[in-house]
Amino acid sequence: MEPLPVTSIGKYRIDGRLGAGAMGVVYRAFDPHIERRVALKTIRRELFEDGERASLMARFRNEAQAAGRLAHPNIVSVYDYGETDGTAYIAMELVEGRGLSGLLEAGRPLDLPAALGWFEQLLAALGFAHEHGVVHRDIKPANLLLNAHGQLKVTDFGIAHIESSSMTMVGSIVGTPSYMSPEQIAGEPVDGRSDLFSAAVVLYQMLTGHRPFVGASQAAVMQQVLRDTPRAPSACNPALPAALDGVMFRALSKDRAARFPCTAALRQALFRAVHKTGTSHQSDDDRTVLIAVAPEASETCNAPDPAALASGSLRGNGAPLAAWPAAALANVEARLAAQVGPVARLLVARCAARTENLPALVALLVPHIPSDKGRRQFTEAFAEGTRAPAANHTTSADVSRSGQQLTAEQVQSAALKLAVYLGPIAHIVAKREAPRAASLRGLHERLADAIPDEHDRVRFRRDVGLQ
């Protein structure tokens, strides 16, 4: 006889299965206390031998502790941990979408802008985790989810290392061999650079269609990770900029000290590599793709103290969004989107509800920007005496009739509006399209065509006065 279906676990109502594995089942569930749908990850302790049980439960609690201390748009939120009737569970954010692994199963390279966009979100998540003392240790496509809006979220912190935790796994091999760093395979201590190695393996797979280290057995894969240098990405996929090869080889270095020291440094190197290609191949649209990190930024991993950025007090008084002028929020959203992409709309809405003070709002948003350079640029945009206008309010029709030439301010304004929909690459797209447009209206038309989502395209056209 088949076991009776599970209808509830603790306070949670079970609505269906999302997946199952050797450790347990992940359910679609509902929290009746606050009326929220969640994903409920469970393990049944009696399925494991006594010797395994303690280690397994420690890993499971570690996942709840690691992810529970991280509140970031690109990390799956953990809401609750509990044990009941022989079952331990974690209640977490329900991500409606698909796993990155599903996109990579076909063995074909992903579109370069999409791959870099998702990788940028992965770096944002890892940078935030590392700043809070958490190393994931199992970055792989199966642990990277894409929601219905194309936003990437990191999940499964089951073997994460927490700096303040007494739990240690030094001397044991934990992770997935194809994506593990050499020091993990050797059973040595790990740090954020280990996560960056695994993230680089994921990027390599996205760009080429296959993993850099493959073999007939796990032992063979491990030997490759420890000894072999993979083929250059541009040799596997000729459409890739050759300048990316050096970045990838450094990110996949066997020597941890030779790798990029932090997410910001890797992000900066990617920007420089693609920017170099973009400026030398301006006629090739497929190669003109950039990540929004200033090329002159130094390899620094230190973030400014957000509290020092606010000249006013942070008033968590639930200020209604209506208290904010629409133009002011649009300005903040556009400038934040230039750093973090479309998720800026959600972040601004949440933070603006907590304060009516612009410096305080800026301080609340700064920690969500992954790069040191980006944080400085965002802060300086709102500094007293240097605040630049968010947009030139001259409509496309006005400029078209007057025959004015495009100015740098107009191109910048258009890029800020586009960034709400495309994210950091908007400035590069606008700069690329400006010389090809005879008027501001023409530029807006070209930028609208660059937005893949039809609904967003309509909103952009309305924002810039095309309809």
UniProtKB/TrEMBL annotation:
Q: What residues bind ATP, as annotated?
A: 41
- State which Enzyme Commission number(s) the record gives: 2.7.11.1
Q: Name one GO molecular function term.
A: protein serine/threonine kinase activity
Q: Which SMART domains match?
A: S_TKc
What does the UniProt keyword field contain?
A: ATP-binding, Kinase, Nucleotide-binding, Serine/threonine-protein kinase, Transferase
Q: What are the Protein kinase domain coordinates in residue numbering?
A: 12-271
Instruction: Tell me if Nucleotide-binding is a UniProt keyword of this record.
Output: yes
Q: What name does the UniProt record give this protein?
A: non-specific serine/threonine protein kinase
Cross-referenced InterPro entries, in alphabetical order?
DUF8082 (IPR058395), Kinase-like_dom_sf (IPR011009), Prot_kinase_dom (IPR000719), Protein_kinase_ATP_BS (IPR017441), Ser/Thr_kinase_AS (IPR008271)
Q: What class of enzyme is it?
A: transferase
Any Pfam family from its record, for instance, is: DUF8082
